[in-house]
Amino acid sequence: MNVATLLLGCNIGNCESTFVETLQMFEKNCGRLLNKSSLYKTAPWGYAEQNDFLNQVVILDTELTPVELLSKTCEIEFELGRLRAIANGPRTIDIDILFYNDLEVITNDLIIPHPRLHLRKFTLIPLNEIIPDYTHPALNKTIAQLLDECEDNLNVYKKGN
Length: 161
Description:
Elements (H helix, E strand, L loop, with lengths): L1 E9 L4 H15 L1 E6 L3 E3 L10 E10 L3 H14 L14 E7 L4 E2 L4 E2 L8 H10 L12 H7 L6 E3 L3
Antiparallel strand pairs: 1-4, 1-5, 2-4, 3-4, 3-8, 6-7
Helix pairs in contact: 1-2, 3-4
């Protein structure tokens, strides 16, 4: 089996409900859920003229290869109404593969570890909640170290706080 770490993002519709449905689809199509972070409310990154996002990191045990996992996550996004109209724009669901085991994967359609995860607090904060001591395979720094060094100044709040 393989361990895949994914980031969920949503800012259209009932995001909490969408995340529940996404996790059910992961269990059915991708593998077993091992862990998940709290939900985090996050200011939009890149394209600011939109609603805040809800984000969550999840960890799956999967038999899928990285490319197969990408294909399944794209299918799930499509089934849940994801449209790709504006780069970094509003979306019903966004699923990013952050890590896959300790592999570095580079294809035309997929880069693992995610190439910008270390620049974004909305990714690092939920990662730090559940795997602070995990070492980024390419940067050789722990998630806690990457968060400490991150210069992103966007607000990220644990939902409910």
